[in-house]
Amino acid sequence: MESQTPEISREFQSENRKLLDYNDEDFNEFPLNELDDDLSLQDEIHADIEPGEAMIQPPKSHKSLEEPPRGKKLDVITVVEIKGFIVTLLNKLTSNGDLWSIKARISDGTAYMDAEFGDDILRSLIGFSVAEMRVSIKCPS
């Protein structure tokens, strides 16, 4: 079976000569996968739609961490587990009573979110509790 290559009309070539002859110096550095949505949108714009017909397409969605609007406090504390990483520490590590506390900006690779780390997580990361720290400061080895 022969492979068929579509012919490009002379009219298309003359109208788009500048685009066809464009020498892209950073072609290998440009993320082409981001163009997929733009290209499909261009196809929809140039599609032949008869009067009275509608082009229906499902909405596009991206996975992300949802965050309340800035400055708005939540009434409910939500505990979530994600596979992510700390991007920026937003304040110093503090001990309030017998609990560790720190705020940080975290990311799962798709979005950023400001979060407050609980005492149990910080105790496991640091290796000791606030009470154990106070005892070690009072009685140095």
UniProtKB/TrEMBL annotation:
Native species: Scyliorhinus torazame (Cloudy catshark)
**Record-level GO cellular component terms:** nuclear body; RecQ family helicase-topoisomerase III complex
Q: Which domain of life is it from?
A: Eukaryota
Recorded hits in PANTHER family, A to Z, give: RECQ-MEDIATED GENOME INSTABILITY PROTEIN 1, RECQ-MEDIATED GENOME INSTABILITY PROTEIN 1 RMI1
Q: What is this protein called?
A: RecQ-mediated genome instability protein 1 C-terminal OB-fold domain-containing protein
Pfam families in the cross-refs: RMI1_C
Occurrences of domain RecQ-mediated genome instability protein 1 C-terminal OB-fold (ranges): 72-134
GO annotation terms (biological process): double-strand break repair via homologous recombination; resolution of meiotic recombination intermediates
GO MF annotations, alphabetized: nucleotide binding
Renumbered to this chain, region (Disordered) spans 1-20
Bias-annotated ranges (Basic and acidic residues): 8-20
| InterPro entries in the record | RMI1_C
Q: Which residues cross the membrane?
A: none
